[in-house]
Amino acid sequence: MTERSSSKAQAITSEVRRRIADREWRQGDRIPDEAELAVEFGVARATVNKALQLLAEEGLLDRKRRAGTHVTLNPAHKATLTIPIVREQIEQAGMEYSHRVIAQKLSPLPADASTRMALPEAALLIHLRTVHYGDGKPFQVEDRWINPQAAPGAEAIDFQRINANEWLVRNFPWLRADMAFSAENANARDARLLETRQGTALLILQRTTFNDLGAITSARLAFHPGYQMFATS
Amino acid sequence: MTERSSSKAQAITSEVRRRIADREWRQGDRIPDEAELAVEFGVARATVNKALQLLAEEGLLDRKRRAGTHVTLNPAHKATLTIPIVREQIEQAGMEYSHRVIAQKLSPLPADASTRMALPEAALLIHLRTVHYGDGKPFQVEDRWINPQAAPGAEAIDFQRINANEWLVRNFPWLRADMAFSAENANARDARLLETRQGTALLILQRTTFNDLGAITSARLAFHPGYQMFATS
């Protein structure tokens, strides 16, 4: 697509959004077909197609080859979540970043991490525990397993020099990430490292990334009490 | 785009992903330009453009008009999160859905909800408290404010008959949703309604949706202990 057809497509998406918001086109309604819209907007059919496809990907329209395009009955249920790099996140909040590696050693993979990473239980992986600080205050406690098969060279890295999150992101692009959000009462270790009381509710993010060699890393991130993670759609 | 050029674009995205995963193209590398790739893959330039655009949206490529297309230094930091309709979520888990409205009345909007909804404090909105059950067990406690200005007719609805989540989604498509995840220790009311102990860590989702008339609704959703929300990228 050229720049020009792309901005035309944008004008069409805006107008379609407006018609849906203004309920000129109501949920479940079949909208005019591509050819009609191309005439109405004075653009190529491919441009209309591009605009409608974008709205379909957002979940606002429902496109079926034979049945035509309808305004979705259950609109957009998808949201985009930015996966932060912890150093950037802390610096963007105007704080100075630092981190401390509590432990870094080869250890046998426990059952739960083995399931998440699709690797054999008791396989020897790098086990890393790190605390990330903003202005010296604990921000996040990270418990991470790294698979040297998918991240060759990891055995030789001193993660006190460069934090594992950044080293991995810089060197091993991932193709897929699985994430799960949950809440846990701080256990004794969480409480000590986050300088809070045992039992305090913590937001937990389990994140496992994969490349074509398998699981790269799986981390349990426990955020400081009161932390909020934002998403928009 | 036709069906055929779309599947060609898909073949190109797969090949580009493979080259990045195999480190034939490394992070920061400039990749061949559209015209060269069009020749290599034997497709139209627009098809290459479409494929690269998709990978750029995913964050794997970084496209700049003059500098060309590079493999992103910090790859994909975005994940897609499906926003579940609570009834569907419970039914998809194989449980029978039911809900109970604890309170439904016009009340003055408190300060925190006023900020989230960008509405004046003390404006009269519909305040609703609901518990959603799966097989009779508490699944989610919902504390919701509904703005009748953006959702006309809401005043007349009995939300015990149809739950507010579904009624709103069916009747008022939203254009934007703001979400925040956090963890809270169950307060006395959460604990009673979720049939758990006070202090138990709960995953909290604050969600506010907007249409062109303003904020439609803002809800605090407290999930049962142990609940996990999944996202993939």
From TrEMBL, chains A, B:
Keywords, alphabetical: DNA-binding, Transcription, Transcription regulation
Cross-referenced Gene3D superfamilies: Chorismate lyase-like, Winged helix-like DNA-binding domain superfamily/Winged helix DNA-binding domain
GO molecular function, one term: DNA binding
Span of domain HTH gntR-type: 6-74
Protein name: UTRA domain-containing protein
Source species of the chain: Paracoccus shanxieyensis
